[in-house]
Write a structure and sequence with these properties.
With 373 residues, the chain is an alpha/beta fold. The chain has 17 helices and 12 strands. Helix content is 51%, strand content 15%. InterPro entries: Diacylglyc_glucosyltr_N, Glyco_trans_1, Glycosyltransf_28_UgtP.
Length: 373
Amino acid sequence: MGKRFLLFTEEWAGSGHRMAAEAVHDVLVAQEGTELSRIVGGLNTASPALRELSRFFYLSMLRYGKPFWQRIYDQEHLWGTMLKEPLGWWLSQRLMNTLLQEEKPDVVIATHAYCLSALARSKQKLARPFHLVSIPTDYQINHFWVHPQIDTYVVAHERVADHLMHSYQVDAKKIQVLGIPIRSVFSVAAKMDKRTWKRQLGLDEQFTVLVCGGEGGYGKITEVMKALVKEMEPLQIIVITGKNEKLYNELQDLLQKYPCSHRVIVKKFEPQMWQWIGAADVYITKPGGISCAEAMALRTPLLLYQPLPGQEKNNCSFLLNQKAAVLATDQEEIRSMIRQWRNQKQRDKIMKQMELVRRPEAAQQIAAYLLQM
């Protein structure tokens, strides 16, 4: 008899957490050892009202109160101590009554920390306990991800493992360094070179810059565009605005008012991002864990701009420390790095550092580990 897996995630705080769950799920369902694999929206199941409140607060903080959000994040240990147990107590009964008792999972996986304490509490109460696995989707970890009832931590890098052991006294036997799970298609796409991707997408075979702010089109993408179009040497610029209609229209208006000699392509939401990242010579984006893992899988140099408070700032610090990305703080620094990275040897330097961090087959390795537990 195969194993039964439940993957808990949240999509209201960006799409990365759900994409990580989907990456593992897609591998699990293709394996003979899997009887059931199901993705669950944790708060949507336990408390839809709390989900909407959390989403409203998160988006409001990002829009109007970024410094305040950063201060909250800097005090995550205090907030974790205050909120984890009450949340766990309040949500666990709802999860047990609505899902866990019915599905009887062998393994429960969390790619978002919100419901982890509730899952840990449920594990203690159920007559048939499950193996609890946490998979943080960033290159850092915080207090909300840590609980004595967690059986396995699957983390992105050895530095995260060290932090768990030294700051939270987690036993090394509980930690697996397997990477951030990304869709399996990225490991396949990594075998194609950039020239092939450009040809397949109908792009010119010239130096290409991809600009994207995630599914929501976050970050000051218009500023980035204004910097790029000022470049004297020809560029091929691809901007993907995701589901941000306002940004898409704003960029279209900008290009009409200020025509340039560069080839500029503005697109909306693109489900097959691996093609565009694979074709790009440089990827300008915000440092979400999934976005960075995808870019490194495809060996596309990362130019980070406008990291959001909290996890993204920490991801940025990690990647800069590993020399696996570069941060631009203004338009002039963007232009300076673009000029520098026109030189293939300069791009090769950062790609060499990315090799030390990239794990394109993380989802496959995580699924294999889960099946053999």
